[in-house]
Each structure stands twice: as C-alpha cells, then as structure tokens.
Known about the structure:
Elements: E1 2-9, H1 14-25, E2 30-36, E3 41-46, H2 53-62, E4 66-67
Antiparallel strand pairs: 1-3, 1-4, 2-3
Amino acid sequence: MEQITLNIKGMSCSHCQQAVTNALKELNGVEKVEVHLDQGTADVTYDGSKVTIEKMKEAVEEQGYDVV
C-alpha cells in the first residue's frame, strides 16, 4: 500500500468533504481516505497497481474541485 496527500482547492463545507471522500472511495484500489476540510487536503492509502494518482485527481475534479 502507498500513501499520498492530495491538495484540494474549493472545499468549503462538510458536503464538499463528503463528496471528495465518496469519489475517492469509489475507486478500485483505494483503501482509506481522510479528507481534512480545514487543511484542504485528502490523505489517501491506495494500491498503486490498481489505481493511479491521475485517476484520483480526475475523480476529485469530476466533483467540481481542483487538485493542485
């Protein structure tokens, strides 16, 4: 398992936090997600052989947020 912290712009409430969490958890290979609204980050534990960082970024961006 690998771990990454994504910096996410545009989250402002608990709904935003939940939308990002759900989008990432739906990806095959994502084991654990912790979204920190106050820091604008998401800590993701994932299997690099099943999911790419690019796919994670796309999933977040499809919810209307920017990964920087």
